[in-house]
Design brief:
heterodimer; A: mainly alpha; Methane Monooxygenase Hydroxylase, Chain G, domain 1; 83% helix; B: mainly alpha; 13 helices
Chain lengths: 224, 416
């Protein structure tokens, strides 16, 4: 026999959202692996990494769809449904951009010129750090639900979010410097290759941006 | 008086059937929150439910029983033919019991209170005549069905907001929980004891002055708070499961509070819902005993005992399984939420029981859960299901009424 009291508790979106962010961050980590392999000219390892990223991106997509299905219009939640859907979409972008970048690198067998190798890998590392912080903030979601998005816990999360913002502006500066370096050496590179290098720098910057947006969305939930 | 023996045995039989249904079904809704939040194991929940349902039914079930017995029908119209009232009450019991059995078997949301009130109104309006129903009283009963979930919701909102403000939002929720939770225990013990003393104990023959009642209620509250404090101090911090603010341990502190409110909820449920089974029995017994529509006689204590035993029996035979399944499915209702909902619902129900209003305990609990949700306390509440539950009485009342009318004419044909 069924019981109706149990039915009024819809399934909580917290855990799926956290799993989704974990998956997206895993894709970014694999992207770091991919660039390191590419820098070492190890294209087998790079292909492995692309495969791993594609799987993560696919998993994230599946989670995203199930979260959206789960958030039916009948639910009464502490935060608006639309904001949660925005949040999961923003998280998803991190995985999507990782996959896009990885594909491009592998497709063009893109090698980084020695001059920008070090600053580029540094930028990538900071981008991964931003995504990790974003994941950390999302991991606080269960505690935020516990406190009803108020008080000391909310302040703690705001703190994490401002750390993400700091890292993101750091990556902005790194991006600027990297473009400057590219500009200095672009005449010596094949033009199309130079174009794609610029594009890659932009894409990695967008990943950091998306990680920051995850924090912003979460911050938006705190300010309701 | 061969006839009287038949009437009383039938009434007792149907009454136990109905009480069994209440114990099998409704009790699960009162206890499942405690099991779901792991404040109680299923075994403990059964024990708590059995003891407190029984105490609630026997000590505080009298007022509502009176309402069901003689508040809905103007029995003075029946002084010439008291047997019609007997047939009607038997029919109402059988109808509500059957409806409850069918609906719970199918998993439909159903309120025992609404079905018995619908059944009594149904047989009286059709079998006797529209003027036999005390429509004013029925109106106020129906009104109480709207007011009670609303009241419970508001109280739950306020209780939970106070918990957020005092404990959850702070830098140091764990020491604060240890400090403040005993006060909520006091509140729970004090409120429920006070209302019971004021309204419930009259038929047990206990008459207390206002000061005495307050003193006893405060005493009970303090004892509960002290015992609770003892258990709270023994809770150790679980470092593995905890993050910065120790919410895992905080919830375990609230878990102890929830044991107290679960007792209160079982008590409140027993005090209100036993009447649904026992009110008609009491009506039949008083007529069969005296042969007249005697409205003055007190409710025999054995009738209340019968109801209490029936509920416990239903709980033991069938309710166990329901509690287990429901408990597994409402794990999102953590103790800090569950207690607020239960305390609000229990207080509302006990007050309603004291004034003799037969309200739906499930609807009141649903109202309280919504109140906690309003305070941003619950991750997701399915308003579609809530709507179906709250509207279910629209179906339940005519269903109870129609079945009661059919049974009434059948019983009249057989016995009359």
């Amino acid at each position: 026999m069924g019981n109706y009291l149990a039915g009024i508790f819809g399934s909580s979106p917290i855990e799926p959202l956290q799993m989704h962010m974990d998956t997206c961050h895993a894709a970014v980590r694999e992207l770091v692996v991919l660039f390191q392999a590419a820098a070492n000219d190890d294209w087998d390892a790079a292909a492995e990494a692309l495969k791993a990223i594609s799987i993560k991106e696919w998993e994230a997509d599946g989670l995203k769809h199930s979260i959206r299905r789960q958030l039916s219009r009948n639910l009464m939640m502490p935060v608006p449904r639309e904001d949660l859907i925005d949040l999961v979409q923003t998280q998803d972008r991190v995985a999507n951009l990782s996959k896009k970048t990885a594909r491009m690198v592998l497709w063009r067998k893109m090698r980084l010129p020695e001059e920008i190798k070090e600053p580029f890998l540094a930028l990538l590392e900071r981008t991964a750090a931003a995504s990790k912080k974003a994941r950390k903030s999302i991991r606080e979601l269960d505690e935020l639900y516990e406190t009803g998005f108020r008080g000391a816990e909310a302040e703690r999360v705001e703190n994490i979010i401002s750390q993400i913002e700091e890292i993101e502006s750091e990556t902005d500066r790194m991006q600027g410097a990297l473009r400057g370096r590219l500009l200095e050496i672009e005449d010596r590179l094949p033009p199309v290759h130079a174009m794609f290098l610029y594009r890659t720098v932009d894409l990695v910057g967008e990943i950091a941006d998306s990680a920051e947006h995850v924090g912003r969305r979460l911050d938006g939930l705190l300010r309701l | 008086m061969n006839e009287a023996v038949i009437f009383i045995s039938l009434a007792a039989l149907f009454g136990v059937f109905m009480a069994w249904g209440i114990g099998a079904n409704d009790v699960a809704n009162a206890m499942a929150t405690s099991v779901g939040s792991k404040a109680l194991t299923i075994r403990q929940a059964i024990l708590v439910a059995a003891v407190f349902e029984f105490i609630g039914a026997v000590l505080a079930g009298g007022e509502v029983t009176s309402t069901i017995r003689k508040g809905i029908i103007d029995a003075s119209l029946l002084s010439d033919s008291p047997e019609l009232l007997v047939y009607g009450m038997l029919a109402a019991l059988l109808a509500a019991g059957c409806w409850l059995f069918i609906a719970s078997h199918k998993g439909w949301p159903v309120s025992t209170t609404h079905s018995i009130v619908g059944a009594i109104v149904g047989f009286a309006a059709v079998g006797i005549g529209m003027e036999a129903v005390k429509w004013g009283k029925v109106g106020s009963i129906v009104l109480s069905w709207v007011i009670s979930p609303l009241t419970a919701g508001i109280i739950a909102f306020l209780i939970f907001r106070s918990v957020q403000w005092l404990i959850i939002e702070r830098e140091d929720p764990l020491p604060r929980a240890r400090r403040y939770v005993p006060f909520y225990m006091f509140l729970a013990g004090f409120t429920i004891t006070l209302v019971t003393l004021f309204k419930g104990l009259k038929h047990v023959g206990l008459h207390l002055s206002t000061t005495e009642a307050y003193a006893i209620a405060a005493g009970v509250g303090i004892v509960i708070a002290l015992v609770g404090r003892f258990f709270i101090q023994r809770i150790k911090v679980d470092r593995k499961a905890d993050k910065q603010f120790h919410f895992h341990t905080v919830e375990r502190v609230f878990g102890i509070l929830m044991v107290v409110t679960a007792c209160g909820m079982a008590f409140a449920h027993g005090s209100n819902d036993v009447a649904n089974a026992i009110g008609p029995v009491a009506a039949v017994v008083s007529i069969a005993d005296s042969g007249v529509v005697g409205q003055k006689s007190p409710i025999p204590i054995w009738v209340l005992l019968l109801g209490g035993i029936g509920i416990v029996f239903g709980l033991a035979t069938y309710g166990v399984r329901v509690i287990a399944t429901v408990g597994q499915r409402i794990t999102h209702l953590t103790p800090s939420r569950g207690f607020a909902a239960e305390l609000a619902a229990a207080s509302t129900i006990v007050v309603a029981s004291g004034t003799g209003m037969p309200i739906s305990t499930t609807h009141t609990l649903v109202g309280a859960v919504l109140g906690v949700g309003m305070a941003r306390g619950i991750a997701a509440i399915d308003l579609g299901v809530v709507g179906r539950i709250l509207l279910s009485w629209v179906v339940t009342i005519p269903a109870g009424a129609i079945m009661a009318i059919v049974f009434y004419y059948i019983l009249k044909a057989i016995l009359g």
